[in-house]
Amino acid sequence: MNENIEFLQAFLKNPGKVGSITPSSPELAQKMIERIKPSKDNAVLELGVGTGAITKFLQEIVTDDISYLGIELDRDLVRSLRRNFPDMCIVRGNACDTSSIYQRSGVGKIGYIICCLPFVSLPNEVGEQILLEIDKFMQQGCTFRTFQYAHGYYFPSAIKLRAFMHDRFGKAKRSPLIVKNVPPAYTLTWSTV
In the CATH scheme, what is the homologous superfamily, with its name and number, of domain 3-191? Predict the structure, then answer.
């Protein structure tokens, strides 16, 4: 099935959990994985895999089956992802349970977190729980990268995410606006390594 149609169906089925009506563009995906070098000691954790718009670029640099873990909530998307990326470890689960999913996965030490979750549309308590899960990995040393759409950059939940990360890990490195994405977006990166 066409990736755009699949993503739109997921959005229509659950707009609160899918933050856009289109998948990330190749330009945004490449910015999200910039300078990432997966290995068993620096595995990639992808939260909110969606249709795999970023995963398709990650699979080109992931060298083995213990260097990547993807977590996606939507059952239909997970089925499609497993079909399209059979060599990638993609698990159906809730990002609120990230650390327990990781512990059962057999994946190496997390060195990178690529987060595509729609914090702007998540309920506050869910967003807070996910940030606490991310914090556990950051405390052990890793790089966290997410994106925020330009139109939502000053929404309270977007500001809250940046404030949470800033208070713990300092100022984010923000990319230039990626205009070849619908809608345009910035990437934000924090690192504790």
Answer: Vaccinia Virus protein VP39 (3.40.50.150)
